Amino acid sequence: MKLSTIFLLSTIGLLSVYASDVVDGEVTDDAPKAAQEEDDLTIGASPDAGLAFHFVQPADANVLHEFYTGKPVKFLIGFQNKGEKDFVVKFSETSFRYPTDYNYHLQNFTRGEYNRRVAPKEEVTLDYGFYAHESFAGRPVGLVVNVHYQDADGNAFVNNVFNQTVNILEDDSGFSGETGFLFIFFIALSIGGLYLANQFLSKLSRKSGLSKRRVVEQGTSSEVDFEWIPRDAVKNKEKKSPVAGSPKARKSAKKAD
Amino acid sequence: MKVMLLVFALLASVDASARVLVGKSLISKYPVAEQENVFEYQIVNIGDTPASNVELSDEASFPTDQFKILSGSPKIKFATIPPNETVFHHVIVIPLIAQSVLDRDVIVDYTDSETGKIARVSTNWFSKGRFTDFFNKSVMAKVNRSTSSHVLSFAALTVPLTLCSMIFYYRSKSRYSVKQHN
Q1: What pLDDT was estimated at residue A31?
Q2: Which domains does chain A possess?
Q3: CA-CA to B168 of 20 to 30 Å: which in A126, A187, B57, B103?
Q4: Cβ contact, residue pair B25, A126, below 8 Å
Q5: pTM of the predicted model, to two decimals?
């Protein structure tokens, strides 16, 4: 191709690339506006409410942030009304979030419905408990606990009382059926293996035994040695030798005796 | 320098306080009437200073005409709870009648080492409504079926089969086994 055509094509290509960049710029310009609109709609905490959070059930959970699967996790939420009007604590929502992106819910737990009226200067403790399913074992998850309440005027508030990444560990303490039956299976396998080994070894010894017997055995000889049989038995046998043939023949042979 | 320290001390004392949270839960598997039910109270001091004269009062939950308290008292006083400490208190009761019992608030009064008295209440057992149903003992017997019936049914299935196999084996052995000549 001619140099001039290459030049023309390359300039057109570059222009098209820059044109798309301009379009991208337009898209990004819209994003800050959308965020501003969202801020006006968010609900936050009320300054008249003092909330506290404390784990009760895994005793060291307040320090360690580690839970075991299948074991209950219980915590207490303290709600203190520092204002002059009634508050109604509606519910608490607990959820597991993806540790690197807290907007992605892994699991939402059942709401703890309280609907508890708190008078001014009154303090109330609410509790909640949940189990971590064994499918979460060995994973870090973000645990988020929000408390929803409203004041006497009907304004809704949300207060986040726990918002951290916790480690879910597998519970190895209990006797699990799997390991028990695996243990029994290995015992059975070993017994079977011992039995087979015993058979194999006895077969080997039997082979050598046969060869010994071959040495001893002379094979069937036509002459039968009756020396060790008492005379009476031999005579009886000669007498009572069964006649070959049908039962009728045998009967006639007997009658003949 | 001294003024600065004084200011800091003042600020620190304003922040430091005792705050007590209280929770109540049923430790027994099911609430059953005419049986022992174990309730656990968790009293936690999450503040920085000790809480003294901590008084737990929950007699309203166990009226004496409906409950017989075996051990532990619903009304108990703890002298002091150090900061960041939990006190577990157990009460064992026997409900006399199988009925629904209204859940009452558990009240804990405590005194901060520096400031005055604060009363605390707690709700029992989230989202379980306002009543605790104590089940009938005979109904629970069906739920927790006794292990002896399990063993009997297992024996009824396995013993005849095992006995038959044993009988067949010994019969055939006694009749048809070839006696080895040495």
Answers
A1: 44
A2: 49-169 (2.60.40.10)
A3: A187
A4: no
A5: 0.64
